[in-house]
Amino acid sequence: MDIVTRYVEKAKRLVVGLMSGTSADGVNAAAVEIRGRGDDIEVELVRFRKVPYPSDLRQAIFRLFSPECPVVEVARMNFVLGEFFADAALEIIRATERERGKVDLIASHGQTVCHLPRPQDVALAMRTASTLQIGEPCVIAERTGITTVADFRPRDIAAGGQGAPLVAIADHILFHDREKGRLIQNIGGIANVTVLPPGRRLEDVFAFDTGPGNMVIDAVVDTLTKGLLPYDRDGEVASQGLVDDSLLEWMMGHEFIGVVPPKTTGREEFGHDFVSELFRRGAHLPASDLVATATAFTAESIAHNYRHFVLQRCPVEEVILGGGGSYNPAIRRMLKQRLPDLAFFLHEDMGILGDAKEALAFAILGDRTMQGLAGNVPAATGAAMPVVLGKIIPGRLSPSGSG
């Protein structure tokens, strides 16, 4: 019996989801028990761990974001991060298996180092989009001995999509409501929203990136403090400053904000060059005003996208916030000021640990891959059709050679 058949025949599966986002601050590992088949599944978060990157490793990852980074460094870091992801998996596996039995699958998103969702001219007169997540899954499968699904985004791009956002189907499974329209807003390095109209129809769901989440705020704080503070804890710095309207207007003028969905973005558009220009234009401002304005950009870009691309299209009552930015009181306050007719909640209000949601989502996507089910939502990514995502790397073979 092959590994996929054995997996699918199980009434319940124990899956470890691994995720590191655009902020590149560490690996989130979620052990998830999944029961049922298809869209009609029950999901339980068994255990969650966040494993921070050591400072020297995080610095090495950030060097990969530079267009001048040599490919040899990307190749080396692919295997270095494979070992790191494997260690994070083993840490949570040891704790989980003592309680729940054998882990059946690992689903790893990896670490995005380049995401170019809009087709560009390249060699041989070809025009293509591209994406790259590293953290070699063969290393994960070898170190743990467990079948691993990884590299989810390229198949969607091959099908004409932008490879993101991919959590829409998990949001649908976890948060849909028959009566209420809901927005599931993730505020990670990049901010993205999943729109869940009332009811249970997956074909009505759509999703897109709204712009930067914490990425610009983190970069501003890190620069101002010369690395002493990697982010604005509890929005304390932003709360002491004033928003500069002219600088915010320039930020909101970025072409991505007004692009009609489906759309996705990343560090290539809101990374070093964008932040450098922000500092040049805001050189006359106090540090707290710069942070307040960067924070307002996150909130205003989310609100702008709701007004233009969501609220005119379907009824919405609730916004459920997740990701690191959901715990920033300054962001939450600014969102409520801009969207007073919506009720705001955290993932925790819905019984789901916000920090764990994206790792949990990739556990769901890995489970769908093993079942041979599509993991993308074309209305979210722009793909021509639903497709099965990811690549399956078998775990170590047993002495009999049967896996």
Molecular structure report:
- It is a single chain.
- With 403 residues, the chain is α/β, with parallel strands linked by helices.
- It folds into two domains: 3-163 and 356-393, ATPase, nucleotide binding domain (Nucleotidyltransferase, domain 5, 2-Layer Sandwich); 168-351, 2-Layer Sandwich (Nucleotidyltransferase, domain 5), CATH 3.30.420.
- It is 39% helix and 23% strand.
- The chain contains 15 helices and twelve strands.
- The protein has helices spanning 3-8, 55-63, 71-100, 137-144, 153-158, 168-175, 215-224, 236-240, 245-252, 267-270, 272-281, 287-309, 329-338, 357-371, 378-381, and strands at residues 12-20, 26-37, 40-52, 105-121, 127-134, 148-150, 182-187, 190-196, 206-212, 318-322, 343-346, 391-393.
- Strands 1, 2, 3, 4, 5, 6 and 12 form a seven-stranded mixed beta sheet that branches.
- A hairpin with a 2-residue loop joins strand 2 and strand 3.
- Helix 12 crosses helix 13 (329-338).
- The chain is globular and about 65 Å long.
- The model has no long low-confidence stretch (mean pLDDT 95).
Q: What is the gist of this entry?
A:
The chain has 403 residues and is of the alpha/beta class. It contains 15 helices and 12 strands. The model has no long low-confidence stretch (mean pLDDT 95).
Structural category: alpha/beta
In total, the number of domains comes to 2
Residue runs with pLDDT of under 50 for 5 or more positions: none
Global morphology: globular
In total, the number of strands is: 12
Largest sheet: 7 strands, mixed
Described by its quaternary structure, the protein is: single chain
CATH architecture of the largest domain: 2-Layer Sandwich
| Residues in β-strands, percent | 15-25%
Radius of gyration over C-alpha positions, nearest whole angstrom: 21 Å
**How many distinct helices?**
15
Order of helices and strands: HEEEHHEEHEHHEEEHHHHHHEHEHHE
Distance between the termini: 9 Å
Say what the CATH topology of the largest domain is: Nucleotidyltransferase, domain 5
- Text of the CATH class of the largest domain: Alpha Beta
**Nearest-integer average pLDDT:** 95
